[in-house]
Amino acid sequence: MPFAAPVFFVAAGAVAAADWMAAEEKRFSEAEEDVDRQASAKVKDLKAKAKAAKAKAAATKAKAKAAREEMAREEAARDAAARARARQAWEAAQARAAAEAKKYQGPAWAEALGIPSGTQLTLELVQRHYRQAVMRTHPDRGGSPAAFHMVQSAWETAKQELA
Question: Which residues form a coiled coil (predicted)?
């Protein structure tokens, strides 16, 4: 912005006025440049601070994400371990139950003849239970033909196994 100098009517004064005006314009121009430099430095400083703040926020966000992922992995590992322990316990219980059932369960034909499980099987014992089962299941005595045939089949299998 040009500076309006006072009008001098004296020649010497006109030169001095022109010098004064040039000096004022120079001083004004330097002041403007100084203000521009200060504003530019302030803007650079603020941009640098904003960039640092963004970087810090991004780092914090990344740390939080990593912490969440680590917690999820740990929880998944704990869940997998708990499932594995539960599965092992269940399988052990199943094995114990099967062993216990096998200990007390006799052959299938023994049940068909009415022999209690866990009984020491001999041919005489099986024959006695066979005769009683035939009396219970014979169709002439009110039994069903299917049950009678099952007893007959059990007796044949028992004779083969115990003979």
Answer: 21-84
